[in-house]
Specification:
The chain is an alpha/beta fold. The chain folds into three domains: about 60 residues, OB fold (Dihydrolipoamide Acetyltransferase, E2P) (Beta Barrel), CATH 2.40.50; about 90 residues; about 170 residues, 3-Layer(aba) Sandwich (Rossmann fold), CATH 3.40.50. The protein is about 20% helix and about 30% strand. Helix 4 links the parallel strand 16 and strand 17. Helix 7 runs parallel beside helix 8. It is globular. The structure holds S-adenosylmethionine (SAM). The site of S-adenosylmethionine has 19 residues, from helix 4 and strand 17.
Length: about 425
């Protein structure tokens, strides 16, 4: 076969779902294949897209026997060779949740050595898995046309819309025009009607401004106000500046805040630590429960997020925001004697050393609540806590990334004795 020829189509029986948005199959030479665009139990014609030493990657191009969970993708850019953003456009929303539950349970079993039945809960704020994404990041081609990266590629799939985007994102018109001289955009919108475009590009970039009341920030400089959006959760109004983390799904902040509140079980007078605090979502809501006889310490390393967190907690003098990295030393020596700890690290998790430091806090907090967007790094950190004598009290999984394989977990741990 010449190097430029595509590989021949292989008929494959598809097995269980795997991380990376594909399912496991075996190619005739016995190697494992991770096959995208298919479902467990399907028989497909697939083409290999890349070869590894012990496994291959492939795309299902034709479905010979289809799963009951298969649907027609709502997005015209979904499918082999196209947009790499969504893994599960071809799966019913109920089927997606079952796949994600199986993925989480498998990682808990394999990495944390914990058997736990997982149910994935829907959250309010999407419509059959669409219209939820309040932050959309697009690349721009040489002519400034927006597009999403194709799977495992730097190539752009040019788009003029996106069915998982929140209507407010589409209403900015950002995906329907060109942005000459820029490299990338993040378009942000809220249920309250705020919208903001944060762009990056060469230092001297001087693009045309967006129309209407949409804020425009280029390389961190506000070119057209506002430079922040506002989101209301549980009656509290949060300011989130360009570049500061906020939950992407329109209903995620409220759903996670409720789950964290229930899992923490805070009481008046408690001392609560909020690690990886972002713009202070969990801190502000915990401050409400513990009252002024208690205290909340928010730890966050991003300066702009700390400024937003201070602003968002300005009514609550018992909230202290500390700009710092979360390190094992900070945890073991810099947190005082917390009654409760919530942590919500980025995808890579807290890591073994920070997890061990949390597990070793004396006196032990009543509860540690771990919010995680990556089941595998969470499972690794969970194992550290379990080995140090903590017990998993509860675990909830939320479908805040419909159409993708991603999922959010909220776990509560208590000292075992
Ligand atoms: C997943 S976000 C959570 C934010 C917040 N809990 C929320 O729900 O809006 C993680 C946050 O941790 C911050 N972060 C990442 N690594 C960090 C570290 N090592 N130390 C402190 N903060 C960190 C990021 O800047 C980001 O704001």
């Amino acid at each position: 076969m010449a190097a430029t020829e595509p590989s021949p189509l292989l008929e494959l029986e598809v097995g269980a779902i795997a991380t990376g948005g594909g399912c496991v199959a075996h190619v005739p030479d016995g190697r494992v294949a991770f096959v995208r665009h298919c479902l467990p139990g399907e028989r497909v014609l697939a083409r290999i897209t890349s070869l590894g030493a012990s496994f291959v990657r492939a795309d299902a191009l034709e479905i010979l026997h289809s799963s009951e969970d298969r649907v027609s993708p709502p997005c015209p850019h979904a499918g082999p060779g196209h947009c790499g953003g969504c893994d599960f456009q071809h799966v019913s929303v109920a089927g997606q949740r079952r796949l994600k539950a199986a993925l989480v349970a498998e990682q808990l079993r394999r990495i944390a050595r914990v058997d736990h039945e997982v149910t994935v809960e829907p959250v309010a704020g999407d419509h059959e898995g669409l219209g939820w994404r309040t932050r959309v990041r697009v690349g721009l081609d040489a002519e400034g046309r927006p597009g999403f990266r194709r799977h495992r590629s730097h190539e752009l799939e040019l788009v003029s819309g996106c069915p998982i985007a929140h209507p407010g994102v589409l209403a900015t018109g950002a995906l329907g025009r060109t942005w000459e001289g820029l490299d990338e955009l993040e378009v942000v919108a809220t249920d309250g009607g705020d919208a903001l475009i944060a762009a990056s590009g060469p230092k001297r970039a001087d693009p045309a401004l967006p129309e209407g009341a949409t804020g425009f920030v280029v390389n961190g400089q506000v070119r057209q106000p506002p430079g922040a959006v506002h989101v209301t959760v549980d009656g509290y109004r949060f300011r989130v500046s360009a570049g500061v983390f906020w939950q992407v799904h329109a209903g995620a902040a409220a759903a996670l805040a409720g789950a964290v509140r229930d899992a923490l079980g805070a009481r008046a007078g408690d001392h609560v630590i909020d690690l990886y605090a972002g713009a202070g979502l969990f801190s502000v809501l915990a401050a409400d429960v513990v009252g002024r006889s208690g205290s909340v310490l928010a730890v966050e390393r991003n300066a702009r997020a700390c400024t937003d967190a201070r602003h968002n907690a300005r009514h609550a003098p018992h909230v202290q925001v500390r700009r710092s990295s979360v390190t094992p030393t900070l945890v073991s020596q810099g947190l005082g004697e917390p009654d409760l700890v919530v942590l919500d690290p980025s995808r890579e998790g807290a890591g073994r050393a920070v997890s061990a430091a949390l597990a070793g806090l004396r006196p032990a907090p009543r509860r540690i609540v771990y919010v995680a967007c990556d089941p595998s790094s969470f499972s690794r950190d969970l194992r550290v806590l379990l080995d140090a004598g903590w017990a998993l009290e509860s675990l909830r999984a939320f479908d805040i990334f419909p159409m993708t394989e991603h999922i959010e977990l909220v776990a509560a741990l208590v000292p075992a004795d």
